[in-house]
Amino acid sequence: MTGDKDDQSKTSCNRCGSCCKQGGPALHTRDLDLVLSGKLHFEDLITVRRGELALQPLTDLPQPVIKEFIKLKGQGNDWCCRFYDHQASACTIYAQRPVACGLLDCTRPDELLAIAGRDLLSRFDLLAADDSLLPLVKLHEEHCPCPQLSKLADRLVADKEDTLEQLTRRVNLDLAVRSKAAREFVLSVDRELFYFGRPLFQLMQPLGFTVTETMQGLVLHYSPT
After folding, report:
1. How many domains are there within the chain?
2. Looking at the structure, do residues 40 and 94 belong to the same domain, yes or no?
3. Does the pLDDT value for residue 221 go beyond 70?
4. Of 45, 53, 85, 118, which is the most exposed, with the fewest CB atoms less than 10 Å away?
5. Which of residues 82 and 62 earns the better pLDDT score?
6. What's the rounded Cα separation, in Å, for the pair 144 and 170?
7. Structural domain of residue 66, as residue ranges?
8. CB of 65 within 8 A of CB of 48?
9. Of 125, 140, 175, which residue is a domain's last?
10. pLDDT digits 0-9 by tens, 33-48
């Protein structure tokens, strides 16, 4: 939850839900058992890859992601934590909530800030060595890494045509790998977001990128926001 004048006078949580609506928490190593025991499933998680832009706890300013992590998904197209019940203003997994949720107190943020960015789980901490999708995940990470989104504007200024061409190839390869996974492993969209994160073209849209679909695949365009 971001700070405002009303927050300064608060002395305890009033169950406003602002923190939950801002987004589900990142998972830490202490949350590993929640997944291994089946309390959380891959369908509940999304991978945030290195190079993406993401909000830091208790801030509203996106920062470049230095190291991949996983977090709880949102609700539909909304980042609001999937386990937040709007009608009851309550968490539906409160007894098994991740460690960050247990530490989150907008009146006393120091405990949460102390673990921010530390001991985070990645998908590779959760994937079994014999997971049939693991080789494809590794191939995808090698050939379709997320570009450093915070630096794309500078690259485009230096050489727009070449940069767009490179990004277009990567965007289409990213989609090709996802299509292969869906086709050969009957991978649902929910599980895809854990295994591969969000599609690259979607990550780039807020930065001024648009796409058109052609017979040869997607074509990427850029107009500064």
Report:
1. 2
2. yes
3. yes
4. 118
5. 82
6. 6
7. 5-125
8. yes
9. 125
10. 999 999 999 999 999 9
The answer on 134 and 115 residing in a single domain is: no
Report pLDDT digits (tens) over 108-122. 777 777 787 789 999
What element of type H or E holds 158?
helix 152-158
Q: Where are the beta strands (DSSP E) in 16-96?
A: 45-48, 53-55, 62-64, 69-72, 74-75, 78-81, 84-85, 90-91
> Per residue, what are the HEC states of 102-118?
HHCCCCCCHHHHHHCCC
Torsion of CA 29, 33, 16, 194, to 10 degrees: 80
- Both 91 and 144 in one domain: the answer is no
- Residue 5: pLDDT band (50, 70, 90) is very low
Give the integer Cα–Cα distance in Å for 50 and 195.
14
Residue that has been written with the tokens 């998908």 in this structure: 123
Determine what percent of the chain is predicted with pLDDT higher than 70: 92
The 10s digit of each residue's pLDDT in 189-208 is 999 999 999 999 999 999 99
Do residue 115 and residue 10 come from a single domain? yes
Residue 110 and residue 31 in one domain: yes
Query: Does one domain contain both 148 and 118?
Result: no
Residues 22 and 117 in one domain: yes
User: In the listed set 125, 145, 180, which residue is the last one of a domain according to the structure?
Assistant: 125
Measured between alpha carbons, how far is 57 from 60 in angstroms, rounded to an integer? 8
Cβ 220 vs Cβ 162: under 8 Å: no
Is the predicted pLDDT of residue 18 greater than 60, yes or no? yes
141 and 110 together in one domain: no
Contact 149, 197 (CB under 8 A): no
Total residue count of the chain as it appears in this document: 225
Distance of CA 69 to the CA centre of its chain: 8
